[in-house]
Amino acid sequence: MDLDKKISIVTGAGQGIGEGIAKTLVRYGSKVLLVDQNGKSVKKVTDQINSEFVNAALSYEADLSKSDEIDKMLGYAIDQYGHIDCICNNAAASKGIGPVEDYSLDDVQNTLDLTFTSLWKCLQGEIKILKGQSRPGSIVNISSNSAIKGYAFNSIYAASKAAVNNLTQSVAKELARNGIRVNAVSPGTINTPGVRQYFKQEPKAQEMLENSSLLRRIGEPEEIGEMVAFLLSDSSSYITGQIISVDGGASIN
Ligand SMILES: NC(=O)c1ccc[n+]([C@@H]2O[C@H](COP(=O)([O-])OP(=O)(O)OC[C@H]3O[C@@H](n4cnc5c(N)ncnc54)[C@H](O)[C@@H]3O)[C@@H](O)[C@H]2O)c1
């Protein structure tokens, strides 16, 4: 597997899974633009990468729920690199948690905006650029196992991710003739700042979630990065429109 000479964008790369994905892509030889709304954290990750792999990474601060900021970010990528080969749409967030009957309409709308609509807006901008280039492209959307299993007390987030899965399939169908592959990676529980915080508050949840995986542990961000790197690379040239779980077997447990 090789991403040598590839130009990649990773959204939500300031921490967690996006950070792990960006670091993995660089290890496989890609130059990476790391994008996050938190300019400080994404610069920190970018500096870490560049201290090991000189000039491999650039950082860019953008709120990807806003179309104009997405357009500026993509314009920056083209200014810097001339073209884009690989994109991982990872950024997402959910608002509100609890029984479905208690969700406020604002929480529903915000979760849809941050998890589905912003990814759809990113895809719109990205596809226009990828279609205009005379080279193959690959997109990976980060979904969640909750999209295929449901998620009690986080139902709107799970439903938003189910929409991401379905959009991934539709867009794969639309873009296949343009030589652009589109897949989704569906993580199980991964060792990220949010999950670590949750385990501190709810120690029993840690044991329960570890046991929900066949491998009896949660995953590491770089383990998601490995699958994303494969799907973005030419090694996966016959794979498109797929939703692939990386979850230690939790989805079949
Ligand atoms: N952590 C898990 O166990 C887990 C499991 C399944 C799926 N996921 C999915 O993986 C992805 C990453 O999750 P994570 O746990 O690393 O999240 P995280 O909250 O730790 O990191 C997300 C990053 O995205 C950035 N971001 C969020 N919204 C943004 C926006 N509108 N514009 C720009 N940047 C934005 C945040 O600033 C943050 O740096 C998400 O799509 C999440 O739904 C996570």
Question: Quick gist of this model?
Answer:
The protein is built from 9 helices and 7 strands. It has a 7-stranded parallel sheet, with helices on both faces. It is of the alpha/beta class and 253 residues long.
Structural features, described:
- This protein is of the alpha/beta class and 253 residues long.
- It has a single domain, classed as NAD(P)-binding Rossmann-like Domain (Rossmann fold, 3-Layer(aba) Sandwich), CATH 3.40.50.720.
- It is 49% helix and 15% strand.
- The chain contains nine helices and seven strands; from the N terminus they run βαβαβαβαβααβαααβ.
- It has helices spanning 16-27, 39-52, 67-81, 105-132, 146-149, 155-175, 193-201, 203-212, 221-232; strands spanning 7-11, 31-36, 57-61, 86-89, 137-142, 180-187, 243-246.
- The chain has a seven-stranded parallel sheet, with helices on both faces.
- Strand 4, helix 4 and strand 5 (137-142) form a beta-alpha-beta unit.
- Nicotinamide-adenine-dinucleotide (NAD) binds next to helix 1, helix 4 and helix 7.
- Nicotinamide-adenine-dinucleotide binds at residues 12, 14-18, 36-38, 41, 62-65, 90-93, 114, 118, 142, 144, 187, 189-190, 192-195.
